[in-house]
Amino acid sequence: MNEFFSLSTSFPGILHAKAAAADIADKTDLYGRLIGSWQMDVLRHLPDGRTVSGDGEIHFGWVLGGRAIQDVWISPSPGSAQPPQMFGTTLRVYDPGLNAWHIIWSDPIKQYYTRQIGRAEGAEIVQVGTDSRGDKVRWRFTERSGESFHWIGERSPHDDQDWRVEVEFFARRISD
């Protein structure tokens, strides 16, 4: 029997994994500490300087034989009377050659897609890449603890120096 998969033949049974693959487990703590479910407060920074607040939830789990982490970000929270603002997923795959993570984000609600490379920078996780418009994007997990984190999404249309905050998420763990 393959050590990575359950006996299930269902799609969720094949996709989900119980833990990180043993041969990369020592490299997965960067994102592995996020496994579980989180509630979040959302703060969107509009180009005109106004801010809009909301709520949502995030769910992180091991997938693909424990070689990747997938998450789902939802805003507003399911059951809200507000229309969907975000319902997307990230696939995070560790690359031992780079000693970094390949990040692929897809949000079919907004038709927004990005590819990034994620690494630790001091106490933060920093992901840098480009989106489908060709703009530079930087996403940072800051103020991380076992029970909370602050996520900041930034954009730089012209260079890597002029970053503008677009969105912030303040997340609180609700389950492991």
Structural write-up:
- With 176 residues, this protein is mainly beta.
- It is built from two helices and ten strands.
- The chain has helices at 11-15, 29-32, and strands at residues 36-45, 51-63, 68-75, 86-95, 100-107, 112-121, 124-131, 136-142, 148-156, 164-175.
- The protein has a ten-stranded antiparallel β-barrel.
- The radius of gyration is 17 Å and the shape is globular.
- The protein starts with 10 loop residues before the first helix and ends with a strand.
- The model has no long low-confidence stretch (mean pLDDT 91).
Please bin the fraction of helical residues: under 10%
Named CATH topology: Lipocalin
In the CATH hierarchy, what is the superfamily?
A: Calycin beta-barrel core domain
SSE pattern: HHEEEEEEEEEE
Task: Give the SSE layout.
Elements: H1 11-15, H2 29-32, E1 36-45, E2 51-63, E3 68-75, E4 86-95, E5 100-107, E6 112-121, E7 124-131, E8 136-142, E9 148-156, E10 164-175
Antiparallel strand pairs: 1-2, 1-10, 2-3, 3-4, 4-5, 5-6, 6-7, 7-8, 8-9, 9-10
Features:
single chain; 176 residues; mainly beta; Lipocalin; ten-stranded antiparallel barrel; 2 helices; 5% helix
In short:
By secondary structure, this protein is mainly beta. The protein has a single domain (11-175), classed as Calycin beta-barrel core domain (Lipocalin, Beta Barrel), CATH 2.40.128.20.
